[in-house]
């Protein structure tokens, strides 16, 4: 985990972006430490708020010179509803950067970046880094509807290899991001896939990438109470270097995981061969 | 009275801690991540997540749900076991000057004793907290702390093997008919202190799936929502001590502590120490803020020391 900074960040910009809200927050010290794939948490309301838990958001951009961090916020429940209403000049309690970022290639690679909805937010700075290292990128951006796509223009500014997919066909191809995936991997000779979006999507993407022998890094979204590694609410079953599966924290050991190591089929269960499962009465 | 002049030191077992604040078990992991937000040696002590003899995976996810001014959790005591803790976590804590209150548990009496024994003579350890509020397989899914006899047995078993210099605290559940009865049994068995309270059993149903929100169906409620329950428990047990019906031992209070004023409230009710738990998830830097606020609140009421405020709410009406 990066060394996070806890600060009262001023909202310097708040603008709609399709179905989402783009929030730009001034937090110079935090911005300096951000790497692609890091996330941030925001507290909702002040010190007496009845919403105790922070809300987690991928960091879309960190601008070191401006000293800002950009988040893309989707209205989901009461907490995000309140956050998207924040105005320029408001102060929000921010902790960033958090989590383990995407691993960056040593040299030039061909990478396919796959996103569902606001899952594309952390992929743009990653794409820039990959290009800076002489590599090339392609995007598959998917969402339920056109309004729920994020960053199509930004993707097109980085590469001509951009596929847009919507479930209702309101933009691009109709269907799920997984449908054109295998073909896209082959088309750009991708040796690595980076994916961010809903868990079922990550599972499917990993499966297809694995079949083609392509490495797949996934940024997961698990329900988090603390975001900093002290509560153990955000775990998922992951196979370790030693071949042993454990419940590991997605906030500190992730959110970026090697998709092949995540036991997608076992999410929401205690698999019998998990370290410590026997103590829970689960029989191997 | 200037806030800076207030004496926050607090006696704990045979020693004096710089202040009465600790972390609630399970809300600060083993300290490593929290240390990025607060220097651990600035806290009176650090209470670890409950440690069992062996590795436990804990429960399936989802393990948490937010509730009004609180949350539900069903972690299920995930941990790597005592050997791992002693080898990898404790030395790290000791190096940082943290004074460690180790929370331990077992499914059977022998397991509590087994973990306690392995902590004798370990650097940094200043006391043991017995989490007797966890499910007890040997007792058909009941909780030790729901029964005076089983509570007595656990404390007894640990007190027998633990280093005589290590204070042993029993952590009580609020989900009982008479918490004073359980408290009395623990003190009789040799508990040097009482921790109050653990989470209280609750449940939430997801309106989308229309099924229980937690994989474990029920979970423990924590956070400011349960503070009045915690204050009541502390006040009740302290009153019994003042009345001479329970031998007097220190109480470590927890449950929704969010501000220095909350810490003061617990002290007035009879707590000699306080722990911050769920609030850390909202504000990991909270301990230093709370200590500052506590100093201010004490000074505002002309208390020259924290210990002077302990039990103050019990003084007779004049
Ligand atoms: C690493 C990570 C990155 C994320 N990035 C983004 C992003 O870039 N943009 C965005 O809009 N959203 C993102 N999310 C999801 C966002 O955190 C949730 O939508 C938000 O917390 C919901 O809060 P609420 O009060 O609106 O909903 P409620 O359902 O009322 O929230 C109740 C509790 O559940 C938690 N929770 C609910 N849904 C989720 C979820 N999907 N993931 C994690 N916790 C959840 C909340 O944090 C809160 O503690 C991310 C989540 C994670 C874990
Ligand atoms: C996520 C979480 C994990 C917890 N784990 C433990 C634990 O391992 N052992 C224990 O004795 N109490 C555990 N507790 C209970 C707390 O230590 C504390 O008693 C309770 O949460 C009330 O305090 P609070 O409202 O300040 O959090 C846990 C609480 C939470 C929220
Ligand atoms: S969210 Fe608390 S440990 Fe990950």
UniProtKB/TrEMBL annotation, chain A:
Keywords of this entry: 2Fe-2S, Electron transport, FAD, Flavoprotein, Iron, Iron-sulfur, Metal-binding, Transport
Q: What Gene3D superfamilies does the annotation carry?
A: Dihydroorotate dehydrogenase, electron transfer subunit, Nucleotide-binding domain of ferredoxin-NADP reductase (FNR) module, Translation factors
Provide the GO MF annotations for this entry. 2 iron, 2 sulfur cluster binding; flavin adenine dinucleotide binding; metal ion binding; oxidoreductase activity
Return the cofactor note field. Binds 1 FAD per subunit. Binds 1 [2Fe-2S] cluster per subunit.
Quote the SUPFAM superfamilies the UniProt record gives: Ferredoxin reductase-like, C-terminal NADP-linked domain (SSF52343), Riboflavin synthase domain-like (SSF63380)
Q: Which residues form the FAD-binding FR-type domain?
A: 4-104
Q: Kindly give the InterPro entries that the UniProt entry links to this protein.
A: Cyt_c3_hydrogenase_gsu, Dihydroorotate_DH_ele_sf, Dihydroorotate_DH_Fe-S-bd, FAD-bd_FR_type, FNR_nucleotide-bd, OxRdtase_FAD/NAD-bd, PyrK_electron_transfer, Riboflavin_synthase-like_b-brl
Which cofactors go with this protein?
Answer: FAD; [2Fe-2S] cluster
| Residues that, per the record, bind [2Fe-2S] cluster | 226, 231, 234, 251
Q: Which GO terms describe its biological process?
A: pyrimidine nucleotide biosynthetic process
Ligand binding (FAD): 55-58, 79-80
**Pfam families for this protein:** DHODB_Fe-S_bind, NAD_binding_1
Q: Does the keyword Chaperone apply?
A: no
Q: Does the keyword Zinc-finger apply?
A: no
UniProt record similarity statement: Belongs to the PyrK family.
Q: What is this protein called?
A: Dihydroorotate dehydrogenase electron transfer subunit
* Organism encoding this protein: Kitasatospora gansuensis
Q: What is the lineage of its organism?
A: Bacteria, Bacillati, Actinomycetota, Actinomycetes, Kitasatosporales
From TrEMBL, chain B:
Q: One MF term in GO for this entry?
A: dihydroorotate dehydrogenase activity
Q: Which cofactor does it need?
A: FMN
Q: Does the keyword S-adenosyl-L-methionine apply?
A: no
Q: Which residues form the Dihydroorotate dehydrogenase catalytic domain?
A: 11-298
- Active-site annotation: 134
Q: Which reaction does it catalyse?
A: (S)-dihydroorotate + A = orotate + AH2
Q: Which InterPro entries match?
A: Aldolase_TIM, DHO_dehydrogenase, DHOD_1B, Dihydroorotate_DH_1, Dihydroorotate_DH_1_2, Dihydroorotate_DH_cat, Dihydroorotate_DH_I
Any one annotated GO CC term: cytoplasm
Taxonomic lineage is: Bacteria, Bacillati, Actinomycetota, Actinomycetes, Kitasatosporales
Name of the protein in question:
Dihydroorotate dehydrogenase
**Membrane spanning stretches:** none
